[in-house]
Design brief:
Layout lengths: L19 H27 L30 E5 H5 L7 H4 L6 E5 L8 E5 L7 E5 L2 E2 L20 E8 L13 E7 L7 E9 L3 E9 L7 E12 L8 E13 L3 E15 L8 H6 L8 E3 L5 E3 L4 E16 L4 E24 L8 E3 L2 E3 L1 E24 L3 E23 L10 E21 L4 E18 L3 E19 L4 E12 L3 H5 L6 E13 L3 E13 L2 E7 L5 E5 L2 E16 L2 E21 L2 E9 L6 E12 L2 E10 L2 E2 L9 E2 L2 E12 L7 E9 L7 E12 L6 E11 L4 E9 L1
C-alpha cells in the first residue's frame, strides 16, 4: 500500500486495523450504519401493500437490470451461475473460477489462486474491467483496481455473474475498456436452510464456510448470512494468506416490493509475494524463491523479515429498494457505503534518515545518514453514494433511465515503527500524510426497441463527470475535472428461430488513475469499440462468434515496468487497437457428455510507437501491446456417467505475449497449456441433510512449469569511459504451482 496506489502494493481500498481502539471504533461505526439501514428497511416495509394470494416473483434481477444484457442486446457476454461455480468453489478467488471464459487470462501472486489474484480480458488488465456488485461500483476509485483478496470466498455468496467483453453496457463506476463484470449476490430462499462447507488441499490450504437462511418468515421476510475463514501457505515461499469474511442480508418481499439490506466484507493478512523472480537460474531450479522481506543483518547473513505483510479490512453496506408500480413500470434505488483501512509493512535497507523524517546520528564523530528500518504505509478511506433507475417495459420497448453519484475520500500516510539507532521519540510519526478526494456522477438512458418480428434496435447514452483532487509528494497537486459523453448503439437481426446477427458501436472515455499521475502528465483515454456477432442456438448446440475492433486514442498501456513500490507503470500510447475473433460454444455430444470450447485469435498493436533506446528516440513502427497474447483458448469437457456424478476436464492455452511494448525478445512471456480435473458426487440422503457434496479438484494435472505473469524494464547506463549510453533490459516472472489439489465436503440441510 503506498501513497501511490498500485494493483498489488497499495490496494487503494483499505487494509487492516492497526489497534484495538480502531477495531472498536470500526465495529461501532459499522453496527450503527447497519442499524440505520435496518431502520429504513423496516420503515419502507410498513408502507408496502401486500397481497398474499399474489404469486411472488423473483425480483432480485432488478438489482442488476441497469448493467446486465440479454441475448437481445448486441453485446458479447458470458454468464456463470451458482451451479456452474459450486463444483470448483473450494477456496480459489473469483478470477480463477472465471479462467475458462473466452478471452480471459488469470494469474496468482502466490501461485495457487489464493491471496492476490488478477484477471485480464482481451489483453486489458483488471484496472480496465468495470466491476459492480448488485449494480454498485467495486473498482477502487483511485487505482481503478479490484482486490479480490479483500473479499475472500465471495463466490459462496454470488447468485450469478456476467462478464461482458468490450465496452459492454457499464453505467456505474469507472469506464470499461476491456470488459464489465457484474455480480448478483445470493437471492432470498423461501424455505429455511443451512450449509457447512470445508475444503483442504496442497500448500496447507483450507477453507471453512458456514451459511444459513431463515427462509421467508410470514412469506415476506428473510435473514441470511455467511462466515468464512481461509488460510494457505501458498506455492511461493512465505506467500501465506490468512483471510476472513462475512456476508449478512435482510430481505423483504412484497407484492410489488423488494427491499434488501446487506453488509459484507473481509479481513486479510498476506505475506507479500508480488516481487516476482528475476534470477533465471532460480526460475528453473528454485521456483518458489521469494525475495520479499530479504535483508542482510549486521553479521552479513541473508535473512527474511517475518512480517513483510499486507494487512487490510474492507466493509461494505448496501440498501436496495425495488418497486414495481405496474406491469410496465418499475424503479430501483440503492445507497451504499464502503469503509477500508489498513497497511502494508516491509523491511527497508539503507534508507536515508532524512527521507523518513528521522535525524541522522553521529557515532565517533562520523555522521550516519542511512539506516535499516521497518515502515508501514497506510490507507484509510471512505466510499459512498447512490445509484437509481426507472424501467419501462412493454412488448416492444424496454427502456431504462438512471444514474449514480459517489464520492471517495482517501487518506494516505506512512509510519516508521523501527529503525536501527534511531531515537524512539521519532518513531510512529507520519513521514508523509496525503489526502485525495474523487467524485463521480453519471446519468444514462438505454433502450431496446423491437422494430419488427426480426429487427430490434439498441441505444445507450451516458454523460459522466469525474473530479479528482489529490495532494501528494509523488503526484504533486492534482485538481482535474473530466466530462465524458459515452454513446452506444446497435442492431439485432433474428435470421430465424435458431440464428441471430448483431452489430454494435460503443464509445468510452476513461480518466487516469493515481499511479499515472505519479509517472507523468497523463491524458484521459478514448475508445471506439465495434462488434459484429452471430448467435446460434438449438437444443444440442449453442454457438457464439464475435469479431471486435477496439480503436484507442491515448490508451494508458502497461509498460511492463514497476515503480519503486511495485506498482505497474502505464503510459499513454497515442493510437492503438485490438482486433480479434472470439468463438465459444456449448455442445451436447451425448445426453451425459457436454463440451464447452472457446478460442480467441487477435492482434493488438501500438501504432507508430517510439522508444528512447541508447539515448536516441527510435521509431519502432507498429508494436505489440504489452500483456496481450494473440491466441487464447479454453475447453471444458463434462461427463456424467451416472446420476449425481460429474467429471470435468478443463484445459487452457495462452499464447506467448510481450511484457513490454518494444517487441524485445527479452520481454517475452512464454505460451503455456495447463489442464485441471474436477470430480464431484452429490448424495441425496433421505433424512438430516438435503445433500452431501463431495468435490475434488486437481490443478495442473500434468505438472507443467509455467509463468502466467511478469514484468519488464529498461534503463539507460552511461559508459564511464566512452561517454556513451546503452539501454539495459531486464525481466522478472511469477511462477505458478505445479500439480496441486483441493478436496471439499459440503453439507446442506
Amino acid at each position: 500500500m503506498n501513497t501511490i496506489i498500485s494493483l498489488k502494493v497499495a490496494k487503494s481500498q483499505s487494509r487492516n486495523f492497526g489497534s484495538k481502539v480502531s477495531k472498536l471504533q470500526k465495529s461501532v461505526n459499522h453496527r450503527t450504519f447497519f442499524l440505520f439501514l435496518f431502520s429504513i428497511f423496516c420503515s419502507l416495509s410498513s408502507f408496502s401493500q401486500v397481497k398474499d394470494t399474489t404469486k411472488i416473483n423473483k425480483l432480485d434481477e432488478v438489482l442488476v437490470s441497469a448493467v446486465r444484457v440479454t441475448e437481445k442486446t448486441p453485446v458479447s457476454f458470458s454468464n456463470l451461475n451458482k451451479k456452474d461455480i459450486k463444483f470448483r468453489n473450494l477456496g480459489q478467488d473469483i478470477p480463477i473460477l472465471m479462467n475458462y471464459l473466452p478471452s480471459v487470462v488469470t494469474t496468482s501472486d502466490a501461485g495457487n489462486g489464493v491471496g492476490y489474484t488478477g484477471i485480464r480480458v482481451r489483453g486489458s488488465d483488471a484496472t480496465r474491467v468495470n466491476v459492480t456488485i448488485n449494480g454498485i461500483p467495486y473498482n477502487d476509485s483511485e487505482s481503478h483496481g479490484t482486490y479480490w483478496v479483500n473479499m475472500p470466498d465471495f463466490a459462496s455468496s454470488v447468485e450469478s455473474l456476467q462478464l461482458q467483453r468490450g465496452v459492454g453496457t457499464s453505467t456505474n463506476g469507472s469506464g470499461a475498456f476491456g470488459a464489465s463484470l457484474n455480480m448478483l449476490t445470493d437471492s432470498y430462499a423461501k424455505e429455511s436452510n443451512g450449509e457447512i462447507s470445508n475444503s483442504i488441499g496442497s500448500f496447507n490450504t483450507r477453507k471453512h464456510t458456514v451459511k444459513f437462511s431463515t427462509g421467508l418468515i410470514n412469506n415476506h421476510f428473510e435473514l441470511a448470512g455467511r462466515l468464512s475463514a481461509l488460510k494457505s501457505d501458498g506455492f511461493i515461499d512465505r506467500a501465506s494468506s490468512d483471510l476472513k469474511s462475512y456476508f449478512l442480508q435482510g430481505t423483504y418481499i412484497g407484492n410489488t416490493t423488494l427491499i434488501k439490506a446487506l453488509v459484507f466484507g473481509g479481513k486479510e493478512k498476506t505475506y507479500q509475494s508480488w516481487n516476482g523472480l528475476e534470477d533465471l537460474d532460480k526460475l528453473e531450479n528454485d521456483r518458489t524463491f521469494n525475495t520479499a522481506g530479504m535483508f542482510t543483518d549486521e553479521f552479513g547473513k541473508i535473512r527474511f523479515y517475518d512480517n513483510e505483510t499486507d494487512n487490510y479490512q474492507q466493509d461494505h453496506s448496501q440498501l436496495h429498494w425495488n418497486e414495481k408500480f405496474s406491469n410496465n413500470w418499475s424503479t430501483n434505488l440503492a445507497v451504499f457505503y464502503t469503509k477500508g483501512k489498513g497497511y502494508y509493512e516491509n523491511y527497508k535497507e539503507n534508507a536515508k534518515f532524512s527521507a523518513y523524517g528521522l535525524t541522522p546520528i553521529v557515532i565517533g564523530g562520523t555522521t550516519i545518514n542511512k539506516t535499516d528500518l521497518i515502515r508501514q504505509k497506510w490507507l484509510d478511506n471512505d466510499f459512498y453514494g447512490t445509484t437509481f433507475s426507472a424501467n419501462y417495459k412493454d412488448e416492444k420497448l424496454d427502456v431504462i433511465f438512471g444514474g449514480g453519484y459517489n464520492k471517495y475520500e482517501g487518506s494516505h500516510f506512512g509510519k516508521v515503527i523501527w529503525a536501527r539507532n534511531a531515537s524512539k521519540s521519532e518513531l510512529g510519526d507520519r513521514y508523509y500524510d496525503d489526502f485525495a478526494t474523487k467524485t463521480d456522477g453519471n446519468i444514462f438512458a438505454k433502450a431496446n426497441y423491437q422494430v419488427t418480428g426480426q429487427w430490434s434496435l439498441f441505444g445507450d447514452l451516458q454523460v459522466r463527470n469525474v473530479h479528482y483532487k489529490a495532494n501528494a509528494v509523488e503526484t504533486g497537486r492534482v485538481n482535474d475535472n473530466f466530462n465524458f459523453f459515452n454513446p452506444k448503439a446497435g442492431v439485432n437481426f433474428d435470421i430465424d428461430s435458431k440464428n441471430q446477427l448483431y452489430a454494435s458501436y460503443a464509445r468510452a472515455n476513461r480518466e487516469p488513475n493515481r499511479t499515472d499521475y505519479k509517472n507523468g502528465t497523463p491524458k484521459p483515454e478514448k475508445l471506439n469499440d465495434f462488434e459484429l456477432g452471430l448467435r446460434h442456438s438449438t437444443s444440442k448446440v449453442k454457438l457464439n462468434a464475435n469479431v471486435y475492433y477496439m480503436a484507442y486514442k491515448d490508451q494508458l498501456i502497461l509498460t511492463g515496468e514497476l515503480d519503486d513500490v511495485g506498482a505497474p507503470i502505464r503510459k499513454n500510447s497515442g493510437d492503438s487497437y485490438r482486433l480479434g475473433l472470439e468463438i465459444d460454444a456449448t455442445v451436447a455430444v451425448l445426453d451425459n457428455l457436454i463440451i464447452r470450447p472457446n478460442v480467441t485469435i487477435s492482434t493488438n498493436k501500438n501504432k507508430d510507437f517510439h522508444f528512447e533506446r541508447d539515448g536516441m528516440l527510435t521509431a519502432l513502427g507498429n508494436t505489440n501491446i504489452a500483456y496481450s497474447p494473440n491466441f487464447i483458448a479454453g475447453n471444458i469437457i463434462t461427463y456424467m456417467p451416472m446420476a449425481n456424478l460429474q467429471m470435468s476436464f478443463l484445459s487452457k492455452i495462452v499464447g506467448e505475449q510481450y511484457m513490454g511494448n518494444i517487441d524485445s525478445e527479452g520481454s517475452k512471456l512464454k505460451s503455456y497449456f495447463v489442464n485441471d480435473l474436477n470430480v464431484s458426487y452429490e448424495f441425496i440422503p433421505k433424512s438430516v441433510f438435503k445433500s452431501i457434496l463431495l468435490s475434488g479438484l486437481v490443478n495442473n494435472v500434468f505438472d507443467y512449469k509455467y509463468e502466467s505473469n511478469g514484468f519488464f524494464y529498461t534503463y539507460d547506463d552511461n559508459w564511464s569511459n566512452a561517454n556513451q549510453i546503452t539501454t539495459i533490459e531486464g525481466a522478472g516472472y511469477y511462477p505458478q504451482a505445479g500439480i496441486n489439489f483441493l478436496l471439499g465436503l459440503t453439507l446442506k440441510f
